[in-house]
Design a protein that fits this description.
Elements lengths: L1 E6 L4 H5 L12 H18 L5 E4 L3 H10 L5 E3 L16 H7 L5 H4 L7 H15 L7 E5 L1 H11 L16 E8 L2 E10 H14 L21
Parallel strand pairs: 1-4, 2-3, 2-4
Antiparallel strand pairs: 1-5, 5-6
């Protein structure tokens, strides 16, 4: 299995820290730039392989997929939509805790919405449908909480273990089989770190050498034998 997990680009609500489930929020101008910058990064991760491209139906995810992999046919898959945050939609986590002291989404779920176990079952259904029998790598463009639960389930962990994984906007992660073991190949590779580093290199050198993202050490497929 090669499962490439991509979180969508920046939105006004991610900037504000608002729980964004079913609300249709588009990308900011910076978010669109992030999504476009994902294209060469994903080429490096995929090593020229043609993926199955799957996206959440939410606008912020479909926009990211279209900008990142514009030449690939896209499957829209409700299984990888973000949590239904129910009564907490649009609130920050701090605002939720003002209403419900001690609230923990991983333990408590969302009043009027989904529990972590329910989202975990969606992740399981996605993994069964897209990764168990195919040979192509799968690229899934999804959301912050969903991506973390998806990674946990792909690794055989409880959905609540998603709390152990960070997920930045426009970040790329890879879960793959390696020497018979399911493992993390890359995690939370933030495209802005690479684009910022490239900009800094251009500023510091009058004649910088062009650098392909797929030549970076942490993107090359290495065998440890």
């Amino acid at each position: 299995m090669r499962l490439v997990i991509v979180r969508h680009g920046e939105t006004d609500w991610t900037l504000a820290g608002r729980l964004t489930g079913t609300t249709e929020v588009g990308l900011t101008a910076n978010g669109r730039d992030q999504a476009a910058a994902l294209s060469p990064l994903l080429e490096g991760v995929l090593h020229g392989e043609r993926p199955v491209l799957v996206t959440s139906p939410r606008k912020r995810a479909t926009e990211t997929a279209a900008l990142a992999l514009s030449s690939q046919p896209t499957r829209v898959e409700p299984l990888v939509a973000e949590y239904d945050y129910g009564d907490y939609e649009g609130l920050t986590e701090e605002e939720v805790r003002q209403r419900k002291p001690g609230w923990d989404i991983w333990r408590d779920g969302c009043s009027g919405g989904e529990t972590t176990a329910e989202v975990g079952r969606r992740a399981d259904a996605f993994l069964h449908a897209y990764t168990e029998n195919g040979t192509q790598p799968v690229v899934v463009v999804t959301h912050g909480h969903l991506s973390r639960i998806l990674a946990a389930r792909a690794l055989g962990l409880d959905p609540e273990c998603g709390r152990l994984f960070a997920s930045a906007t426009a970040a790329v992660s890879l879960i793959e089989d390696h020497h018979g073991e399911r493992c993390i190949g890359l995690w939370n590779l933030d495209v802005t770190l690479l684009t910022d580093a490239a900009a800094a290199e251009r500023r510091s050198s009058p004649n910088p050498e062009p650098r392909r993202l797929d030549t970076l050490p942490n993107l090359r497929h290495r065998d440890d034998t």
